[in-house]
Design goal:
Structural class: mainly alpha
CATH superfamily of the largest domain: lambda repressor-like DNA-binding domains
Oligomer: single chain
Shape: elongated
């Protein structure tokens, strides 16, 4: 057994990170995580701490806070509102003001290129801009039968 983990009970007794059990602990861990991620050049130990705290915070939040999936239009509307943008600010991602307008009114789905550009602009995973309902699989076509010539 590794000497680092020789006595995990003692490690926890001395303040090593542990499973988060309540919102007060979540706040403490989140504050610590923000301080660590604000470092310009974190050491390898600090990077390990960031990774561990992130896992603990994510686990607690997934178990205690339900975040409903939002449709792409709602996501973009939210981002526009939060960042005090206008539809015109999204022209670089959509190509034209009419394309932005058609998407925002639900008349048009996003193209793959628009998803990529929105993901890059807002630094979010592409899947938040992809509607689960709009993902369709093309039906399988039966194979063409070849006629046999005798």
């Amino acid at each position: 057994m590794s000497t680092v983990l020789a006595n995990p009970v003692e490690m926890i007794a001395h303040g090593a990170p542990r499973v988060i059990h309540n919102d007060a602990e979540l706040e403490m861990y989140t504050d610590a995580l923000f301080r660590l991620t604000a470092l310009e050049n974190p050491s390898s130990s600090e990077l390990e701490a960031i990774e561990l705290l992130t896992l603990l915070v994510e686990r607690y939040e997934q178990e205690h806070y339900f975040v409903p999936k939002a449709d792409p239009v709602s996501v973009v509307r939210f981002l526009v509102e939060q960042q005090n943008l206008t539809q015109r600010d999204l022209i670089p991602q959509f190509g034209s003001e009419s394309a932005v307008s058609m998407f925002m009114t639900g008349q048009r789905n996003l193209t793959l290129e628009q998803v990529r550009k929105l993901s890059a602009r807002f630094k979010l995973p592409a899947d938040v801009f992809i509607s689960k309902a709009s993902v369709t699989h093309s039906p399988r076509r039966p194979a063409k039968r070849r006629s046999r010539s005798r």
